[in-house]
Amino acid sequence: MHGETNEEHKPDPEILEQPAEAVLDEPVIEEQVVEEQLTEPAPAAPSGYDDVSALFERLAATEPGSAAHAVARDALINRCIPLADHIARKFSGRGEPFDDLSQVARVGLVHAVDRFDLSRGSNFLSFAVPTIMGEVRRYFRDNTWAMRVPRRVKETHLRIGAAVDQLSQRLGRSPTAKEIAAELDVDPDEVTQAVIAGNAYQPTSIDAASVGRDSDASLLDTLGEEESQFDRVEEYIAVRPLLAGLPERERRILTMRFFESMTQTQIANQLGISQMHVSRILAKTLARLRDLSERD
């Protein structure tokens, strides 16, 4: 059977990139059916998807790795895209763009198609619905905001990255907060709020193992001591030219703490000073940067 995902058989990018509107004419299952899939092990396939079993049989009859297998697989995925988009729609209105949710749901659909075993005699929808919903829920768990942030601030936060890239190329240096605000046609205070709010965004689960480390320590395990000035750091990323004016040791400690993700204790051990001394230097340096940025 084709329970294993074949490296050569990645879905056609067009499957994941085509807009949801392109498949709205296809039949979708009713919302009640989605809920039933979560409570009943193998309900009857709803009207409109009766042909899915035949598509799986056609896929099973092909040789894994062959062109025929890839064609049959893509046809099956395309056939069930309305199901993925329907589930994505159930999660809309929670602050995440529908297009993003649709992409995630379609990835879940691909996983469901690759893992489904027709020989077990179960209904594909009873397997696909929880698989897709699990993928979307995982997205919300790992890619959502840790606190309530106004939509306007979220949108500004998402625009800042592109604005910084464009301004950096145009100016030949990192832009100031005021220049970013002018580029986005917003108030400078809004840029500051959006940058600080970025600390409430969780692109990676805090319980996930840290990438690039030898141990299995989670991100939560690597966090250092609490610092009252921490959520100001990203604000200063917009004024990086100011960092050049700092003494070497202050600039090094700031870089180690906020750009190399080292704890105060790790910094202290590496520099041969006390953790309390590191804490004082950080507080003094951040206050100095704040004063310099306000004069700009």
Automatic annotation (TrEMBL):
Pfam families per the UniProt record, alphabetical: Sigma70_r2, Sigma70_r3, Sigma70_r4
Concerning NCBIfam families, the annotation shows: PRK07122.1, SigBFG, sigma70-ECF
Q: Which organism is it from?
A: Nocardia ignorata
Q: What is the recorded name of this protein?
A: RNA polymerase sigma-B factor
UniProt-annotated stretches for the region Disordered = 1-21
Domain named RNA polymerase sigma-70 region is located at 76-145, 158-224, 242-290
In terms of Gene3D superfamilies, this protein maps to:
1.20.120.1810, Winged helix-like DNA-binding domain superfamily/Winged helix DNA-binding domain
Name the Gene Ontology molecular function terms of this record. DNA binding; sigma factor activity
Domain of life of the native organism: Bacteria
Question: Which keywords, in A-to-Z order, does the entry hold?
Answer: DNA-binding, Sigma factor, Transcription, Transcription regulation
